[in-house]
Structure to design on (181 residues):
């Protein structure tokens, strides 16, 4: 994707694409590690493009990456974004920030519109608990465990979440799990 996005000596990974149909703006969220020897220096960045996807890619029209302040936590690894494709108002990330249950947890950030900044991410267990309490549901799903829970993939409508975990009871080192709302 050219030197605008790919920097020498830097790890760029975990891309996630979203198109804002109301404005025609394209967003490419990804993680960048400016200090490859430090696994906790992965941070979330975004690049934008205002033309069609093929032109953005083939003509390298993506903007320089911008650090997304509200999604990142100093001293923590913030990676693997999953954005709700229909409206772009919810993002799930992997992080080992303060408040994590295990090594890596899934966290959720929201925003009122695609032009608004993201909320500070909330641990997905807490988010589920808050929603269940508001609905009077005492059987709330627990997503994050004392193990690593990471690499979210969120369905277009935001109802299905697939992620990997190395929790006990699996079939190998990292196994895929699915949960629905």
């Amino acid at each position: 994707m050219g030197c605008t996005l790919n920097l020498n000596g830097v790890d760029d990974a975990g891309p996630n694409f979203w198109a804002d149909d109301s404005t025609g703006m394209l967003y490419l969220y990804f993680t960048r590690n400016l200090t490859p020897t430090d696994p906790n220096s992965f941070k979330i960045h975004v690049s934008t493009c205002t033309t069609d996807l093929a032109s953005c890619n083939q003509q390298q029209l993506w903007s320089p990456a911008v650090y997304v302040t509200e999604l990142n936590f100093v001293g923590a690894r913030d990676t693997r974004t999953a954005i709700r494709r229909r409206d772009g108002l919810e993002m799930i990330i992997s992080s080992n920030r303060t408040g994590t249950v295990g090594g890596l947890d899934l966290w959720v950030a929201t925003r009122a519109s695609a032009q608004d900044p993201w909320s500070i991410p909330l641990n997905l267990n807490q988010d589920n608990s808050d929603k269940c309490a508001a609905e009077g549901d005492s059987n709330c799903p627990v997503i994050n465990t004392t193990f690593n829970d990471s690499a979210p993939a969120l369905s277009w409508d935001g109802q299905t979440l697939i992620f990997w975990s190395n929790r006990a009871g699996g079939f190998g080192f990292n196994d895929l799990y699915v949960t629905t709302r």
Summary: The two ends are 35 Å apart (CA to CA). The mean pLDDT is 91. The chain has one domain: 11-180. The first strand starts at residue 11 and ends at 19.
